[in-house]
C-alpha cells in the first residue's frame, strides 16, 4: 500500500458518519495535497515516508477535528446564562448559610470560633444555629429521596434563619429567598423525574 | 508562533489565494525546515480559521484542474477580518517585545 492510499484510508475512517459534503471535501483536499506533494517532491521512498510522517503526526488533530464536527454546537443563550447565574446564587447562599451556622454553632462542640465577643447569649445563638444547621443538612440529604419533605426542611431552615436573626436580615433575607426558590425548583424536578419513572 | 498566526502571516505574505500543500511548503520554508505540517494539523487549523471568518475558501474551477491534469485545489485567501486580526496580533507581539526590552536584565 502506498503512503497516499494509507492517507486516504485513514481519512475514510475518521470522516465516517460525518456530513457527506464535509467528508467529500476533506477527501478531495487530501487528494489535492497528496498529488501536489508527489508532483513537487517526486514519488521516492523519502516522499512516501514524509507523507506517512504527516499522516501520523496529524492523526490526533484529525480526531479532534472530527470531534468538533460531531459535537452538537450549543450556543450560550440569555436564558441559559440567567439559569447559570441563578444556580450560582443558590449555591453561594447555601454555602453562606452552612458556614455561618457552623460558625455560630461551634461552641456546642467545644470550639469557640468567635472568641469572647458574644458572651451574652452565645449559647442561645449556638443552639438556634445548631437546630437550623441540622434542619438544613437534613433537608439537603432528603432532597433526593423525599423531595417535598427535603425542600420543606431546607426552606424552613433558610426562612427560620432570617426570622431568628432579624438584625442580620439584610444578609439572611435574600439568602433565604434564593435558597428557598432554588430548592423548590430542584425538588419539583426531582419529583417529576421520580413520578415519570415510577 | 501558534500555527494559526503563522498561517495568517503566510497568507498575507503571499497576497493571493493559496492551497493546502502550498501553505505547508511556505510554513516549512519560513521555519527553515524540510518537515511539512501534518495533514490533520494543517487542515484543522485552516477549517478553524475559515469558520472564524479569517480566511475565505473556494474550490477552483474544475476546468482549470482538468486542463492542468491534477485534482482540484481548495483555495484560501485572507479576509478583511483576517487582515485586521493579523494586524492586532503583530501589534500585540511588538508590544510584548518592547516590554521585554524595557525590562532591566
- Contiguous low-pLDDT stretches of chain A (5 residues minimum) are none
Helix proportion range of chain B: 55-70%
Helix content of chain A: over 70%
Order of helices and strands of chain B: HHHEHEH
Percent strand of chain A equals under 5%
Q: Give the tally of β-strands of chain A.
A: 0
- Most extensive contact: A-B, 29 and 23 residues
Strand segment tally of chain B: 2
Structure description:
The complex is a heterodimer of chains A (198) and B (105). Chain A has 198 residues and is an all-alpha fold. Chain A has helices at 3-14, 20-41, 45-70, 78-105, 122-142, 147-164, 169-197. In chain A, helix 4 packs across helix 5 (122-142), helix 4 (78-105) crosses helix 7 (169-197) and helix 5 (122-142) packs antiparallel against helix 6 (147-164). A two-stranded antiparallel sheet of chain B has the order 1-2. Chain A binds chain B through residues 7, 25-26, 28-33, 35-37, 39-40, 50, 53-65, 68, and chain B through 19-22, 24-25, 35-44, 47, 59, 70-74.
Amino acid at each position: 500500500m502506498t503512503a497516499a492510499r494509507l492517507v486516504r484510508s485513514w481519512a475514510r475512517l475518521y470522516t465516517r458518519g460525518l456530513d457527506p459534503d464535509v467528508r467529500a471535501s476533506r477527501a478531495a483536499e487530501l487528494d489535492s495535497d497528496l498529488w501536489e506533494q508527489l508532483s513537487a517532491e517526486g514519488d521516492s521512498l523519502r516522499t512516501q515516508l514524509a507523507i506517512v510522517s504527516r499522516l501520523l503526526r496529524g492523526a490526533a488533530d484529525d480526531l479532534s477535528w472530527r470531534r468538533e464536527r460531531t459535537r452538537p454546537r450549543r450556543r450560550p443563550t440569555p436564558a441559559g446564562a440567567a439559569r447559570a447565574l441563578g444556580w450560582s446564587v443558590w449555591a453561594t447562599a447555601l454555602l453562606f448559610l452552612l458556614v455561618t451556622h457552623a460558625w455560630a454553632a461551634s461552641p456546642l462542640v467545644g470550639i469557640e470560633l468567635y472568641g469572647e465577643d458574644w458572651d451574652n447569649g452565645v449559647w442561645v445563638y449556638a443552639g438556634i444555629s445548631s437546630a437550623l444547621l441540622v434542619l438544613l443538612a437534613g433537608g439537603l440529604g432528603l432532597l433526593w429521596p423525599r423531595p417535598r419533605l427535603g425542600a420543606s426542611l431546607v426552606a424552613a431552615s433558610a426562612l427560620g434563619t432570617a426570622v431568628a436573626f432579624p438584625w442580620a436580615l439584610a444578609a439572611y433575607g435574600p439568602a433565604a429567598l434564593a435558597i428557598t426558590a432554588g430548592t423548590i425548583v430542584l425538588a419539583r424536578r426531582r419529583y417529576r423525574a421520580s413520578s415519570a419513572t415510577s | 508562533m501558534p500555527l494559526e498566526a503563522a498561517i495568517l502571516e503566510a497568507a498575507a505574505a503571499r497576497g493571493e489565494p493559496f492551497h493546502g500543500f502550498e501553505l505547508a511548503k511556505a510554513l516549512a520554508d519560513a521555519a527553515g525546515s524540510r518537515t511539512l505540517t501534518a495533514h490533520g494539523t494543517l487542515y484543522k487549523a485552516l477549517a478553524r480559521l475559515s469558520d472564524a471568518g479569517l480566511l475565505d475558501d473556494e474550490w477552483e474551477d474544475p476546468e482549470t484542474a482538468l486542463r492542468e491534469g491534477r485534482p482540484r485545489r481548495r483555495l484560501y485567501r485572507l479576509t478583511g477580518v483576517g487582515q485586521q486580526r493579523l494586524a492586532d496580533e503583530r501589534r500585540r507581539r511588538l508590544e510584548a517585545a518592547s516590554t521585554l526590552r524595557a525590562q532591566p536584565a
